[in-house]
Here is the input.
Amino acid sequence: RVYTWGHGGEGRLGVGQCERIGVPDREKCYFPTPALVSSLSNVKIRQVSCGALHSLALDAEKVVYSWGCGNGGRLGHGDALGCARPRAVEKLRGEAVVQVACGTWHSACLVMWAPFTVGGVVYTWGSGYHGQLAQLDIQVALEPAPVEYFLDFHLPVRLIACGTYHCAALTIEKELYTWGSNMHGSLGRLVDDEDGNDFTPLPGHVGGFGAIVGEIGRGLVRSVACGRFFTVVCTYSYEGPTLEMAERIMEDMGLRKPENDGKDEEREKDAQKEEREKSISISVSEERVLVPFRCSKCDHCTGYQLNLLRAGICQSCGHHKLLHTLEPPPNDTTQTQIVKVAANAAI
Here is the structure.
């Protein structure tokens, strides 16, 4: 049996009334204790699902029931009218429905359908202005319709989930697909849209499961749930190769070059360092230059010496070179002097 409680507005509780009688006005819409949904008392319900303003139920005979707000066709009855009591979705009668899921403005179910013997086909209906229906250009569907993508690519689905603006499906191979709004990255993948839209009606594969990501193994997806702008998955334990095994396999397949002992990289770094030091180092060279010798202002100067820090000033006595004569010191027999000239090799 099915029981509901909480806010009864829009007939979302399925008890046939939206307000209680004989209570204060501020409490009329509240049903604080579980109430029996009498319309479903004679059927065996196997699963229920709640959206923002509507609900779905699936019985043992694969019949789908819906009730609550009908705006946008989310109930699947061929119109936008609401229902205060559960009503069978006629479009799905005779179909082998195995799961139902509610979004905010849309609904979905999973139907066993030939040629699939395991898994099934996704059906969607309701309002899908953010691509939730995965029916390409169709934005509003008043009745359930299959998602052709999974049929075209022969992808039997075993689990579906609906969020506010996006959906997810898990195939029998434990591969995850998402579609709808990608706001805040809720799809877990990039959306390639030529118009720059941040949503897509086309299901796409979410990678990174059953593989090593960031040196940590991620298992395949076991279960998935969608919320408002976010998605949650539960995975199996990782059973693939270790990181070392994966690297070795890639090397054997020629997809990755084997790593060296690191000496080549060190040699390259040393060469770059040496070149850098050479470009900024100061080389000292000897060159013969004709220079003025004795200082006319002092007797202790042994001859003009080039000052690299103060141009034109003698490093020996501190006087300007114009005050030095070309007359060599008494003991010097040459008019040239060997001086150390420091020059920046980079200049």
User: Anything to note?
Assistant: The chain has two domains: 3-235, 290-328. DSSP finds three helices and 20 strands in the chain. Residues 281-291, 332-347 have pLDDT under 50 and may be disordered. The first strand starts at residue 3 and ends at 7.
